[in-house]
């Protein structure tokens, strides 16, 4: 029920946001031109309309505006999306030029201001009438829970912490006599559930009974169907660490629950990610690396002896080792395959300190991307020695090797880069890498790339 409510609210928000955007452009057009011509019939403006709409889609996707529709920070996300939209529009128009599309600064100014004002008004109106237990769009449902296992407590906790999610918990039914003493909302044994539901106009039943109680579950399901009561079966799977349930059907009666979602296991997703990797790496190699390499090579060789490109065996996808390339930032030493770089490390050269701080030392890894053993975005590749070491200490460490390693990644923009002196610091990096594995999207990769560029320009205290 709640998923349908969220989908509905998301659709309403998206529809009206785009409507407000296009109304703003239309009003700006008439304010500037004063012509009584339908603005879309003016072919000079059709392209810019498309650009504005696609840019809003990009900004909303990068911020995750429509993924957290009922979040308390939704207003903050709207503001962030609006300003990102303005920045992107300005950047795009600077690159393509306004004269090519016959638009003026006045049109951009008028449409931006009108959009900001109308967007705020529309969102405030929606928040007043559309969200919350007393809103016009809210359809709260009374529910009861059968059972007293871990899933039962998890559902109770979820409903109590999320009052806007459309459920009102009335109480529990369970055959455990001890539960009657512990639960304030205990309503009686499971056998009394259907009668109580009918007499008290309960909308849904959440059943958390274990498979060993199949006969009781079947009886409850049949009676619920007879009386048009919605019945939800909640399996006890949360103890196994499964965060997001994605049920796969292998045939009638055979349901398979993967341990985690893996968007990159979809062939089409892998195709788009690989195509982007090739295009992006070719761009960097041709337009940046080609002229930057000889300049940096001279500076590196002037300060210390040794090769310009440092090669090291790193752990790749499926834990297969590969040769990773970097600009050499250290003097040659015997500990390079075992010891991480530390703050004020005496092995780092002066030019090495600069290229490490700005992440320029990673540029040769675009060659790795082109060869296919790395991606632009993914978990950072670790030394083989560290893979062996941390695999014994951190349970989910090897999970990150389901993906190709990346030049940058979600962990890096979250601040988990550089030295990992403790197991706890490595655990946080691994946790971020696993989150990326489970939540990958093409737009997430774009967000990580932009964030990486921003952090490189502004500086990162963990880059040394």
Question: Could you explain how this protein is built, in words?
Answer:
It is built from 15 helices and eleven strands. Helix 1 runs antiparallel to helix 2 (43-63), helix 2 packs across helix 3 and helix 9 (267-303) runs antiparallel to helix 11 (365-371). Strand 10 (375-377), helix 12 and strand 11 (406-408) form a beta-alpha-beta unit. The chain has a five-stranded parallel β-sheet, with helices on both faces. With 464 residues, the chain is of the alpha/beta class. The longest helix is centred in the middle third of the chain and has 37 residues, at 267-303.
Helix content: 40-55%
Envelope shape: flat
- The class by helix and strand makeup works out as alpha/beta
Q: Gap between N and C termini, in Å?
A: 50 Å
Whole-number mean pLDDT: 81
Q: What order do the SSEs take from the amino end to the carboxyl end, as H and E?
A: HHHHEHEHEHEHEEEHEEHHEHEHHH
- DSSP strand tally: 11
């Amino acid at each position: 029920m709640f998923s349908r409510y969220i989908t509905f609210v998301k659709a309403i928000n998206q529809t009206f946001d785009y409507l407000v955007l296009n109304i703003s452009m239309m009003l700006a057009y008439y304010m500037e031109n004063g012509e009584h011509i339908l603005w879309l019939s003016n072919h000079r403006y059709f392209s810019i309309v498309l650009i504005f709409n696609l840019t809003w889609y990009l900004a909303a996707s990068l911020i995750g505006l429509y993924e957290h529709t009922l979040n308390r920070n939704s207003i903050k996300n709207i503001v962030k999306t609006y300003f990102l939209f303005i920045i992107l529009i300005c950047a795009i128009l600077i690159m393509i030029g306004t004269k090519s599309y016959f638009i003026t600064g006045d049109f951009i100014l008028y449409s931006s201001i009108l959009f900001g004002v109308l967007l705020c008004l529309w969102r405030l109106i929606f928040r007043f009438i559309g969200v919350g237990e007393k809103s016009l769009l809210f359809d709260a449902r009374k529910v009861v829970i059968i059972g007293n296992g871990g899933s039962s407590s998890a559902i109770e906790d979820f409903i109590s912490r999320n009052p806007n999610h459309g459920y009102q918990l009335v109480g529990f039914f369970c055959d455990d006599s001890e539960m009657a003493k512990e639960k304030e909302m205990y309503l009686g044994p499971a056998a009394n559930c259907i009668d109580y539901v009918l007499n008290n106009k309960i909308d849904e039943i959440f059943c958390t009974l274990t498979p060993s109680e199949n006969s009781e579950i079947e009886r409850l399901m049949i009676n619920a169907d007879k009386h048009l009561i919605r019945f939800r079966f909640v399996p006890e799977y949360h103890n196994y660490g499964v965060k997001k349930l994605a049920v796969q059907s292998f045939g009638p009666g055979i349901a398979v629950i993967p341990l985690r979602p893996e968007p990159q296991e979809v062939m089409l997703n892998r195709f788009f990610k690989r195509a982007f990797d090739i295009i992006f790496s070719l761009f960097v190699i041709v337009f940046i690396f080609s002229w930057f390499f000889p300049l940096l090579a001279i500076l590196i060789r002037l300060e210390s002896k040794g090769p310009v490109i440092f090669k090291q065996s790193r752990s790749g996808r499926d834990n297969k080792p590969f040769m990773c390339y970097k600009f050499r930032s250290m003097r040659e030493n015997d500990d390079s395959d075992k010891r991480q770089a530390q703050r004020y490390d005496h092995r780092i050269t002066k030019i090495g300190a600069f290229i490490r701080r700005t992440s320029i030392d990673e540029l040769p890894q675009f060659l790795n991307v082109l060869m296919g053993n790395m991606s632009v975005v993914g978990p950072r590749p670790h030394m083989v020695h560290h893979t062996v070491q941390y695999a014994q200490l951190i349970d989910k460490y090897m999970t990150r090797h389901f993906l190709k390693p990346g030049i940058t990644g979600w962990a890096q923009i979250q601040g988990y880069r550089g030295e990992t002196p403790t197991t706890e610091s490595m655990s946080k990096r691994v946790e971020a890498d696993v989150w990326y594995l489970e939540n990958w999207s093409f737009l997430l990769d774009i967000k990580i790339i932009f964030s990486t560029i921003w952090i490189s320009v502004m500086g990162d205290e963990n880059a040394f």
